[in-house]
Amino acid sequence: DDIKVVELGYNNQRHPLTTENFGDEAFLFLENLKNKNGRGLIIVGDDKTKAAKFAHAKFKPEVIIIDDGFQHRKLARDLDIVILDGNEGRYMIPGGKLREPLKNKIRADVVVINEKFRETKILQNFGHQTAVICNYVLENFVNINNDDASLSGKKIVAFCGIGDPDSFIKMMANNGINSAKLIIFKDHHNYSLGDLTKIISAFENEKAGALLTTQKDFVRLKNSEFVMETKSDNLYKQLLYNYPLYYAKIKMQITRNHEALFSHLDKVANLV
After folding, report:
1. Are 211 and 142 in contact, with CB atoms under 8 Å apart?
2. Is 107 helix (H, G, I), strand (E, B) or coil?
3. What is the C-alpha to C-alpha distance for residues 103 and 272, in angstroms, rounded to an integer?
4. Crossing angle, helix 24-33 and helix 215-222, to 10 degrees?
5. How far is CA 70 from CA 41, 77, 272, in A?
């Protein structure tokens, strides 16, 4: 199993720092967790036990955070947090989105319900567990130069390639975004030249004032090998630099039962 170290600003000729090599979620984590100097580091590996051992041996971290680690039973953890958003259904992969039966949430130390941008509340039965309730809040709309802008009143062409496009649609509706056209791709979509042509054509045909996407799609485009490894003024660079393309920067806020999470975090912090 290949273990890769992804570090912002690091130039590796063998494994160029692109989303094609490392995936969009690694770059999303790095963008949101980077320090004030623009530095960030993440370990990517299919075998998360080996990746955790490598991280411990190589970097001696005080805390290791594992993404999608709940089903890795041989990897000992001090704290298990399971996040549900009501979109999981009742079936496991490939019939549904669950990696384990929903009943296995009983193993979790903390269950978090992410209501995202919904107005209706998610109703779940968690037995003895007190669920932490959270939702998403839009911070601002950001472009390639990290400039933010108000898109209120502008005609928008929007596109996304995420697992829950309904959340993106709801975000726009809740924030008064007038989407003249919405183009939806599959999750983790690799954008082709044809896709970019479709997006730009929609922008021009609609006489739109801006293009809008998610941060996950934005980092996939920005860190694509077609942008990082070429000096030519290709369509990928044109979309990023020559068009008013913005992504929605969002954050999570806890609305209820925060103590059910922070009491566990305090215990883990005391173990360090």
Report:
1. no
2. helix
3. 31
4. 100
5. 22, 9, 21
Measured CA to CA in angstroms, residue 212 lies from 100, 128, 180, 182, 252 at distances of 34, 42, 11, 9, 20
Among residues 142, 169, 144, 140, the alpha carbon closest in space to that of 236 is found at: 144
- Amino acid, res. 195: D
HSE on the CB side for 227, CA within 13 Å?
22
Q: Which residue type does 9 have?
A: G
Between the two ends of the chain, the Cα-to-Cα distance in Å is 29
Task: Name the phi and psi angles at 187, rounded to 5.
Answer: -60, 145
Between CA 182 and CA 202 the distance in angstroms is 9
Pairing of strands 210-214, 245-256: parallel
Alpha-carbon distance of 221 to 227, in angstroms, equals 8
Q: At 254, which helix (H) or strand (E)?
A: strand 245-256
Q: Answer yes or no: are the C-beta atoms of 1 and 47 closer than 8 Å.
A: yes
Q: How many CB atoms lie within 10 A of CB 162?
A: 20
CA 124, 130, 132: angle at the middle one, nearest 5?
A: 80
Average pLDDT value for the chain: 86
Q: What is the pTM of this model?
A: 0.85
Query: Which tokens go with 16?
Result: 């160029």
Which tens digits make up the pLDDT trace of 166-179? 999 999 999 999 89
How many degrees, rounded to 5, is the angle at CA 269 between CA 267 and CA 271?
75
| Cα(137)–Cα(253) distance, integer angstroms | 7
Q: Which two tokens stand for residue 131?
A: 């669920």
- List the one residue out of 143, 156, 240 whose CA is nearest residue 191: 240
Structure tokens at 198: 């479709």
Please write the tens of the pLDDT for every residue from 195-233: 999 999 999 999 999 999 999 999 999 988 887 666 666
Dig out the tokens for 9 from the structure: 């600003």
